[in-house]
Amino acid sequence: MKATLLSFIALSSLILSCTNKEESTLLESASIFDDNLISQNLTNKSILSTNCPKPADANLFIAITNNNSKALNRSQNGMGTWVLIPELSNEFNYSSKTDPAFTTDWKDSYINSWTGPAPTKWVASGSSLGTAPTGEKCIILQATKVGNTLECGMVTSKAKATFPLYQEARVRISDSHLANAVWMLSTDSREEIDNLESYGDKLGSKPYFGDKLHLSHHTFKDIAGIRKDYQPQLETWMIRKTGTGCNATDDVKWNTDFHIFGVKWVDATNLEYYVDGVKVRTVTGTDIDPNGYTDCSGMKKALHMIISQAAQTWRFADVNEFYNQNITNGARTKMYIDWIRVYRPNQNLGTSTCN
């Protein structure tokens, strides 16, 4: 099996468990993170709510309350003249993956022959064109249990691009405990930007992740036969309140409606994250790759666009809970993607400046 690691695989190796407390929960990090992660001293780069106190959990932040889901106003965020990149974008408003609108620029598999982390297996049948409950034409990812394997959807762009770049997607995540992700990855799997990583339900034994978004990135390097993975930890898990209340019951439930997720890859050492048209987080400078894993002084390689689902068994108390038919199989696992759009200053895809 190839040594490729994804955001959800890396995260599964980093986090063992959380308590059942909500805003006050602290991730148990001291003994399980890569040694290089423990020394991180990220300053507050999240755009915080003024309504609620800062969470005791240093990995969590509360974004500004915003109940108006809309695409980013690019003109107000330094991208007014940027253009859509057709090779990396798709409206998914056709009826079949045999349509040239899909086959020309996209494929229903991973960037290489790897089929995913067990028990996940990415298969073509895990994605299809259809209609969301609210009427939008979408590409739909849905999981199916086959024996001890969970067959999931994976869609990737054939082309790739480098910064400056803005990726935005309108997504309704599944009502299941599968990982729903929209992200970017280099061909050699050493540079990764995660626009969205999320879970739709709140498990009885480990409910921490059910109402949160993970906004992060990774840099990887093989050192002495060990796959090293850096990702920032502090203030990478986001919650948003529906109003002025500050209790867990006031958190937005991301699986109940479509939301728009965006990430601006400004340059090799700057990322900006947006949710429903509002900036919520930035990562800059040495926080991008403090250990030099890319050997590129930041993130400089061209990245593929990826939409995927996967099983992350670390989230479950036991195998029986993981294989609950109501949450790993059937309609509750449907992830709806209305569209994905990628913009750059011009139609050029850019060139990797470090190989």
From TrEMBL:
<comment type="similarity">
    <text>Belongs to the glycosyl hydrolase 16 family.</text>
</comment>
<dbReference type="InterPro" id="IPR000757">
    <property type="entry name" value="Beta-glucanase-like"/>
</dbReference>
<dbReference type="InterPro" id="IPR050546">
    <property type="entry name" value="Glycosyl_Hydrlase_16"/>
</dbReference>
<protein>
    <recommendedName>
        <fullName>GH16 domain-containing protein</fullName>
    </recommendedName>
</protein>
<dbReference type="Pfam" id="PF00722">
    <property type="entry name" value="Glyco_hydro_16"/>
</dbReference>
<dbReference type="GO" id="GO:0005975">
    <property type="term" value="P:carbohydrate metabolic process"/>
</dbReference>
<dbReference type="GO" id="GO:0004553">
    <property type="term" value="F:hydrolase activity, hydrolyzing O-glycosyl compounds"/>
</dbReference>
<feature type="domain" description="GH16">
    <location>
        <begin position="80"/>
        <end position="348"/>
    </location>
</feature>
<dbReference type="InterPro" id="IPR013320">
    <property type="entry name" value="ConA-like_dom_sf"/>
</dbReference>
